Amino acid sequence: MTKETPNAKNETSKGERIAKMLARAGIASRREAERMIEAGRVKVNGKALLTPAFLVTGKDKVEVDDTPVAGKAPPCLWRYHKPNGLLTTHNDPGGRPTVFENLPDELPRVISVGRLDMTSEGLLLLTNDGELARQLELPSTAWARRYKARAYGKTTQDKLDTLMKGVMIDGVRTGPIEATLEKQQGTNAWISVTIREGKNREIRRALETLKLKVNRLIRISYGPFQLGELGKGELEEVPNRILRDQVGHLVEIPQERPKGTIQATGKFKKHGFKKARQRPPMKGKPNARRRR
pLDDT digits over 207-251, tens only? Predict the structure, then answer.
């Protein structure tokens, strides 16, 4: 198989990097696209690429796994009420149910803006545009993520205020964590939490430093986008006008949708989860199952 490397013409002509183009087409995130390129799965004009440092224009024919990549669809964003018990991943080797398996069939391929833990609930933003997802995740965007946390243990507002200085997680100090005690119900405290970076399990680990164990975590907003009245498992597209107003400074949002592009009307709702795939028994132990 012939592999192509960048040349001077490609480096100097107008265009965008192939990984960015694939991300904007909703094929994969930039990092995933780069891995696909390194695996030889991406072709431009019939030649497999060797490196993601390659520029493409609208005249180039791009293929992934020998399937042509359609022209870029306009960026869309959906609000999804993620239930407890779903992984935010496209594929789980352990066979556990995922967010993307439980989305409506009529939805195009989407990726998530950040993640929610399997046991976390609430607002998860989904988009068909990898560049939009990247922009919304960047720390420089500094959008507030607001949560409601129920935690086992007793605390005071004075203790919660110490989180404004940040906490050390894996040797790195987080940004300020704004936590407000809403009510103490017996041995459980309900706490409103606002963060702007979203490190791995940041809220759970931050509250653990105060001897509080989170047993329920609900994201209620991400920047200007609210969970609102969405029921669990419900999905609703952000209207194009609102999307332009809120993220038009981050990525290009067309004023009008081209004919034939998806435009959701109302809410989609999925009832229940798709069952996890049956996993084979471990070798040598017919009745044993792999741990999740």
Answer: 999 999 999 999 999 999 999 999 999 999 999 899 999 998 888
Class of 3-68 per CATH?
Answer: alpha beta
Q: Which helix (H) or strand (E) holds 205?
A: helix 202-208
The residue behind tokens 């399990």 is: 201
User: Per-domain residue ranges for the chain?
Assistant: 3-68, 77-269
Question: 268 to each of 81, 84, 107, how far by Cα in Å?
Answer: 11, 18, 10
Tell me: the pLDDT tens digits for 9-52? Answer: 344 346 788 887 887 676 777 788 888 899 999 999 999 988 88
DSSP helix/strand/coil, 10:
helix
Distance CA 7, CA 273 (A): 49
Rg (CA), the chain: 22
CATH of span 77-269? 3.30.2350.10
Catalytic site residue 117?
yes
Please tell me which residue in 60, 117, 129, 158 is annotated as part of the active site: 117
Task: Choose among 246, 248, 241: nearest CA to 225.
Answer: 246
